[in-house]
Amino acid sequence: MSDRELIHQYLKNLSKYLSRLSKSESEEVIREIESHIFDAIELQENSGQRTDAQEILDGFGQPRTLANQYVEHLLQGTPPPTGFKAIQSVKKGATKTLYYSMAALGLGVAFILITIGLGKLFFPNEIGVWSASQGNSVIISFSENMYPKSTELLGYWLSPIAVALGAGLAYFTKSVLRVLKQSIQ
Amino acid sequence: MPKQESINEKWDVQLRKGTLELVILAALKTRTLYGLELLKLLHSFETMKITEGTLYPLLDRLKRDGMVKAFWRQEGDARPRKYYQLTEQGKAKLVALTNRWRQSVADIENLIQTPNQHTINPEGASDV
User: Do A43 and B36 touch (CB under 8 A)?
Assistant: First the structure.
């Protein structure tokens, strides 16, 4: 391959890999490199050296590698594809809903458990867990009128158990909420 | 043991990574040059023999960053060439980088010349 063909082939390849640039930008890069190559060959000729286009092209490296350096800034910090923002905000919205329902449910149940536990100490006869219908159903109630034929379970043990369960649930809910909060901010 | 030449070459490559921008800005400090001229100028220094494939994309980046401006000029019968010149922003950056470079050289030189004269603060920072 003659020097001229070699250079032509190189620039053609380079142009192909520069296609991400605008046409005018890509042409300007090619024009500058072409100008450099022919200037360098002229310099070799003028100094009486044997002209070596391949040596000059080697200095530029592979067309693809060279082109990458010109286009990489276009690839860095590329805005996300259209629609990505919408997906993000839907995701954020869903997490937000989850956050508040988790808070309401977890803390609500924890509050009820603790209230039952503490309430048992003040109203031992009204609050409690009863087993009715020969053990077929369990009733947690706050009532003066007991379910007929029911037997109370746990007794005063209900108090520490309910408070401990409530506190445990509150702690667990708080931990989950802390994680969820990071993704809605 | 690796040969001294190989050590030198590796060192030059590492150092150039951080200093090439300063080198290019300094080369364009008082004059307007086109790519090949700039390359030949750098090749006249022992430690700055960079390739075409390094120089041109860097010039392109400096232009995008507003450090240099470029324009085409044709002189006589010669083919048009793309010349580079520092912008005001480029001049300011050259001053900043020059100061930083001098500080680095002074610090390293200081350590090399007087390695035992620095008291060491247990908190971490060395007291010079």
Answer: yes
